[in-house]
Design brief:
- The protein is α+β, with helices and mostly antiparallel strands.
- The protein contains 16 helices and 16 strands.
- The protein starts with 10 loop residues before the first strand and ends in a 6-residue tail after the last helix.
């Protein structure tokens, strides 16, 4: 019997009362009035990231609202499960995992290639060269030998959605290797899905060729693969906009003929149908040409090229507010289309819940996974009358934070190695500690800022706003000095250079002054704040 991803139960979820269930996609609104499904509950965080994109893509592809009023109706009056079942049935023929071709996310007619063990679907599993050189120290080979069908689906979709460079001809995902994804989160799983669905016309105009309506223009596994032996690109003009959710850069066919019985090595469930291997071949679909995925923030280059944002070793924190939640005009970083759309819809929502932004993604170093990062940020409902001043002030707070953080790292390095030590190495752990330590106060600060601006009208230089900026500055300075003391070896005087530490500390304190002209310029502090706010002393 064919395993179908629309009709069969395979998605792990959690209900409001804590109950864990396995559901089919059309059941996301089941019992939504009494005990709603509130989140995904896979065994791996990257699987949860893949599943939410699967569900958003499915809804966007099959039932995008026509206008804003239709979207609001879907938010306030969620469709019944049976209605979703009927809607999703229109594309169920494209979601068979096994059986005869076409198969979900698998090559249409691949019958030969390299055979890989099933664990190679997991992006963190060491590659052939790593195993050959016996360098798989932290993630060992043979830790995953068998996967159940649901875990196989999740692993396959995760790989196709995030695919990094994989050697000659092994293509990266539609958004490049390890794209960042930002999701607006609601109180229930349905709200989270629906909050990230654009109106039909907005979606079709966003990116892609909406005149291409055949199945394989949306679901590339439904026809012969558009291979890239000669580096032929697949641009938005070559595909329907919905293919952004269903991109298939890797040529893969799961091997069901040698299925085994036993426990899945990923989720530990008992199964009579465990997949142990797959075949793959290079030169899959080569996505190029400015794809603008609705769930991903982007950067605009000097040549006006659209570049999806990707993960990096600094992780995800409030430093990404600029470019994730609001525009970063200096660096030309823009939030995802769903975030910009939500900000327009937010004031009209009847729900009093304050949504959050869920950001996640891999940090890749070429083919090597360094880390999976995720974080959440509040999406504050801001009155349009203060939005410009509010966002301008937030930009000032974050830019000041970056300046102070960079100097903390600089002077810690001087304390440890001297001004001309030439020490090499990654000190990003200091950055991470700085952002994580100040994050709670940042959100308190911007809420105070919102209230102050509402009370004070559009006067950005009102006393209350200036006071908020100065308090934030004090938090930054205090955190910086604490991290300096911790990392500069000043508490290990027997192995440190006391003179070098003292000089570096003096330089840090000299910089960390509210009278610092560079800081005052970034924060737009008026001259009189330097003298009138005498109660603020660092």
């Amino acid at each position: 019997m064919t395993f179908n991803l629309i009709n069969d139960k395979w998605i792990p979820v959690r209900r409001l009362d804590g109950t864990r269930e396995i559901i089919a996609p059309w059941q996301v609104t089941d019992n939504i009035g009494s005990n709603p499904i509130v989140g995904l509950d896979a065994n791996r965080p990257d699987f949860n990231g893949a599943l939410i994109q699967f569900l958003i893509g499915l809804v966007q592809t099959t039932m995008a609202p026509k206008k804003d009023r239709n979207w609001r109706t879907g938010f306030n009056e969620p469709p019944e499960a049976d209605e979703l079942k009927t809607t999703f049935a229109k594309v169920s023929h494209a979601f068979n995992l096994d059986g005869d071709s076409p198969r979900f996310m698998q090559d249409f007619d691949l019958d030969e290639g390299k055979t890989n063990f099933i664990d190679k679907l997991l992006v963190e599993i060491p590659g052939d060269e790593t195993i050959k050189d016996n360098k798989d120290h932290f993630i060992k080979r043979d830790s995953v030998k068998r996967m159940c069908l649901p875990c196989s689906v999740m692993a396959l979709f995760t790989l196709q959605t995030n695919a990094p460079s994989g050697g000659k001809g092994h293509r990266v995902s539609l958004r490049g290797g390890g794209p960042l994804t930002t999701i607006v989160m609601g109180e229930t799983l349905w709200q989270t899905i629906w909050l990230n669905v654009l109106n039909e016309s907005d979606f079709l105009d966003n990116c892609g060729n909406s005149s291409l309506t055949d199945d394989d223009a949306i679901f590339p596994w439904m026809g012969p693969t558009r291979t890239s032996e000669k580096d032929q690109p697949t641009t938005p003009e070559n595909a329907h906009p919905a293919q952004m959710f269903w991109g298939m850069p890797r040529r893969i066919v799961l091997n069901f003929e040698s299925a085994e019985t036993g426990k899945c090595d990923v989720c530990s469930c008992d199964s009579n149908y465990l997949v142990t291997s797959y075949i793959t071949k290079n030169h899959g679909i080569n996505y190029e040409g400015g794809w603008r995925h609705t769930l991903t923030p982007h950067s605009i280059t000097k040549q006006n090229e659209i570049i999806p944002r990707h993960g990096n070793p600094s992780g995800i924190s409030f430093r990404h507010w600029l470019g994730f939640v609001q525009n970063d005009n200096v660096n030309r970083n823009e939030p995802a289309a769903v975030v910009l759309t939500f900000r327009k819809r937010q004031s009209g929502l009847e729900n009093k819940h304050s949504p959050q932004l869920w950001a996640f993604g891999y940090d890749f170093d070429n083919m090597k996974v360094r880390c999976w990062y995720e974080g959440k940020m509040p999406l504050i409902n801001v009155d349009d009358s203060i939005r410009v001043n509010y966002e301008s002030a937030i930009e000032q707070l974050i830019k000041t934070s970056e300046l102070v953080m960079n100097n903390v790292r600089k002077y810690v390095k001087e304390a440890m190695f001297g001004q001309h030590g030439g020490a090499k190495g990654n000190l990003s752990f200091i950055d991470n500690r700085f952002w994580n330590s100040t994050e709670p106060e940042f959100y308190n600060t911007i809420e105070s800022l919102r209230i102050a601006l509402l009370d004070g009208g559009n006067a950005v230089d009102a006393d209350a706003v200036v006071d908020i900026k100065l308090k934030w500055l004090k938090i930054l300075f205090r955190t910086g000095e604490q991290l300096f003391d911790e990392y500069s070896q000043s508490n290990q005087i027997e192995v440190a250079d006391p003179k070098r530490i003292a000089l570096a500390h003096r330089n840090l304190r000299k910089f960390n002054q509210k009278k610092n002209k560079q800081i005052r310029k970034i924060l737009y502090l008026p001259d009189e704040s330097v003298t009138s706010k005498s109660n603020y002393n660092h």
